[in-house]
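Thread title: Can someone regenerate the structure for this chain?

I was given the following input by a collaborator and told the matching structure tokens would be attached. They weren't. Posting the sequence so someone can regenerate them.
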Amino acid sequence: MKKLTLLFTLFIAMHTSHSQELESLLLASEDASKLTEGYINPVMKGLMYSMNGGWATTGKVHKTLGFDLTISANASYVPDADKLFAFIPSDYNYLTLPNGETTIPTVMSDNDYETTVDVEIDNGDGTYNVASFEMPGGITKDLPINAVPAPMVQLGVGLPFKTDIKLRYVPKLNFDDSVEANLIGLGLQHDLTQYLGPIDKLPLSVSILGAFTNMDVTYNIEDDDPSDEVTVTNGEAAFEMKTWTVQAIGSLDFKIITLYGSVGYNGGKSSIKINGTYDLEYDIEDGGGIVIGTASDSVTDPIDLNFESTGVRGTLGARLNLAFFKIFADYTLQEYNTLSAGIAFSFR
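Best answer:
Regenerated them for you:
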């Protein structure tokens, strides 16, 4: 039976292996979108917060053509409130929970309990169970921390007028001729200390930062087995995420150590779409699990999800300066608190 990774985005970002029977989800029609949205909401929000981290570790900018190469990891912690989502029966047309649960673990829960979901279709003669599948539990029980990670490689270069340009870039990559992914991020950090008079004689540096990141992933869903219950035409899963941040940054820059902090505002939007036409054939069972007939259906562009997150942020961090080699760590207070750490090679 044809399998499809339910959360193809997690295959790219977190390498999870949870999967579901494609035809079961497609039979659920618009219910599939709602169920998937509740399940993956925390990882989508966490990824948006993580991608906005690690842009700067000092308020001081480079001299013209000075540069740094930064390798960092950001991890956004999921609040307890987002580890479960409510299953409200009246919100679903085709899905029921036969065991009577009222909540389902999200992907970022430490509860790995799998929830049985029934798909019921009314064919005019009555309501029949046409499929069942196991909704996966959370994956964080097997992770070192309950957080959404986002590793980053960033290049910063000093421009005239005491401004740094920062670039995050991953060229388009192909995996197994079915997955394409690319990422680009651009930031500008401008020195404000130069406008503050005598303060520029102190080890204090103040600047303002604005940054934007865009990530795209596409996955071709191929109909490689004509005997499957699902026939796929022009199948594609598409993921897009856009994030932005504006921050005021201040730092005390000493020879061995830099203490830095920032306040600002984050924003992010993301979407997940499963496009194409899916022709389905399925068995109809009575209440006792006996097949009493077959039916067919066709679904076009079955999944269309959108996520959004905005909020204020405040960061405190420290950086150890060993000549051109830097080691840093900081913690950001926001809806999904974020820990960032990494190393940098900086030549001013």
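Residues 1-21 have pLDDT under 50 and may be disordered.
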